[in-house]
Design brief:
Elements (H helix, E strand, L loop, with lengths): L2 H14 L1 H37 L5 E4 L9 H4 L25 H10 L3 E16 L2 E10 L1 H8 L5 E4 L9 E5 H7 L6 E6 L4 E10 L4 H4 L2 E5 H8 L8 E6 L5 H12 L2 E4 H4 L1 H39 L1 H9 L4 H36 L19 H27 L3 H7 L1
Parallel strand pairs: 3-8, 5-7
Antiparallel strand pairs: 1-9, 1-10, 2-3, 2-6, 2-9, 4-7, 5-8, 6-7
Helix pairs in contact: 1-13, 2-11, 2-13, 2-14, 11-14, 12-15, 13-14
């Protein structure tokens, strides 16, 4: 089989039907360009939403959960442990919120090669006093250095400096909370803890994560200040936040740490399962729409090649009469479709990149997301590989059926009919 000759004939057939060839190639170009634009934008949006959630979420969180004890006294009693016991009105066991032996746990975790770093934390409910009104909220006592390293918290501070938290009796409050109480940087805010302790803290910053449920209730202070507010010693910690090099292993590592340290552990996938499902659904929709566009373009190529076969019956008969086999004729028309797919696919990748670049610079400013300035785009090279591969696959399938029909044409019947 002379492939050079087959390609030469295919190019001549394309040139003879240049208008239809351009229409078919434009269909593939449009499909690929829209596929690239849609998938890049949807995945960029997923990355943005994932970032809003995961940037402030540890891969694993160690804490003490308030829950009923699994080992009830009647079940471990020698007299009744072998019986079927029915217990009602079980009350939660108060193990205390503090993580026992937390300094030893922190040391072990920092030496673990799977762990990037850890950030100790204190979470406590408080009341923010505004005149005679008490607004419920949460104070997060954080290790300023570790929090910045793992979660880049300073990116979410719209007014003030995170380093100022190192000062005694200082606090950063969420924008929603600041708007409710008409507070600005430099004001003093009064707080009542769950133990009834009263304190006055100076506001050194305003934060805005972009999730109203957090911005309306959360505030941040240093570990030392939080421990003083609660009247607790320096080893009092309620949470240990962990980030891993391989976040995909978080469920297994969380299970291991739960057994090793005798604390409750939750991984980010479990904590954000609904959010992960939403991201998956959006990705499926974007891929589905892009593939449908390419399939529609494939039907266009199929129709054009079908018409070309009917119009080129004489040429096909002459080719077969002069010694070309049915396989040669089949490869001529398959080559036609692949050339259309390749040219249309390459231009589709080019225009897809241009469209996504344009979207990437369109201003997108909203008060809810102060760190976002333009529409999000993901420039993953895999999208382009998928696009060109599917373009070639679709056009090859679209051209195969007309090619098989052309390979079965009997030249004697065509010439006799003429």
């Amino acid at each position: 089989m002379n492939f050079n000759l087959i390609l030469n004939i295919a190019f001549h057939l394309l040139r003879a039907r240049l208008k239809q060839t351009i229409v078919a190639a434009v269909g593939v170009t449009f499909g690929i360009a829209m596929f690239i634009s849609l998938v890049s934008f949807m995945n960029g949006l997923n990355d943005l939403l994932d970032g809003l959630m995961l940037n402030r979420t540890p891969h694993i969180r160690l804490y003490n959960e308030i829950k009923p004890s699994k080992d009830q006294a009647v079940n471990i009693s020698d007299q009744f442990k072998n019986n079927e016991n029915f217990i009602s009105s079980i009350k939660p066991k108060d193990r205390g919120k503090s993580i026992y032996n937390c300094k030893a746990i922190l040391k072990v975790l920092k030496e673990d090669k799977r762990v990037i770093d850890v950030a100790p934390k204190i979470m406590t409910p408080v009341f923010f006093n505004s005149g005679t009104i008490e607004i419920s909220g949460i104070i997060n006592g954080i290790d300023v250095t570790a929090e910045e390293k793992l979660f880049a918290f300073s990116d979410y501070i719209i007014d003030g400096n995170m380093a100022d938290l190192e000062r005694n009796n200082s606090i950063i409050i969420g924008k929603g909370l600041a708007d409710k109480m008409l507070k600005v940087k430099g004001d003093v805010i009064k707080i009542t803890t769950s133990k009834g302790n009263l304190a006055s803290l100076k506001i050194v910053g305003i934060s805005q994560i972009g999730i109203s449920e957090i911005d309306d209730v959360s505030s941040y202070t240093s570990l030392d200040t939080a421990q003083k507010l609660l009247g607790e010693p320096t080893n009092y910690i309620t949470d240990i936040q962990i980030k891993l090099y391989d976040m995909g292993t978080a469920p297994l590592v969380a299970k291991e740490m739960r057994a090793t340290f005798n604390v409750d552990a939750i991984d980010y996938q479990t904590a954000n399962s609904q959010f992960e499902t939403g991201s998956s659904v959006r990705s499926i929709i974007s891929y589905a729409v892009g593939i449908v566009l390419l399939i529609v373009a494939g039907f266009g190529i199929y129709n054009i090649l079908n018409m070309m076969i009917y119009e080129k019956m004489d040429s096909i008969a002459i080719l077969k009469a002069t010694g070309f086999s049915g396989s040669d004729v089949k490869w001529i028309f398959v080559s036609l479709s692949l050339i259309i797919g390749l040219v249309g696919g390459v231009f589709g990748l080019l225009f897809g990149y241009i469209f996504t670049s344009i979207i990437d610079v369109i201003p997108f400013e909203t008060a809810a997301l102060p760190t976002i300035k333009t529409y999000p785009i993901n420039y993953n090279p895999m999208f382009y590989v998928i696009g060109i591969s599917f373009a070639l696959f679709t056009t090859a399938i679209a051209g195969l059926f007309p090619a098989l029909k052309a390979s079965k044409i009997d030249p004697v019947e065509i010439i006799r009919g003429k």
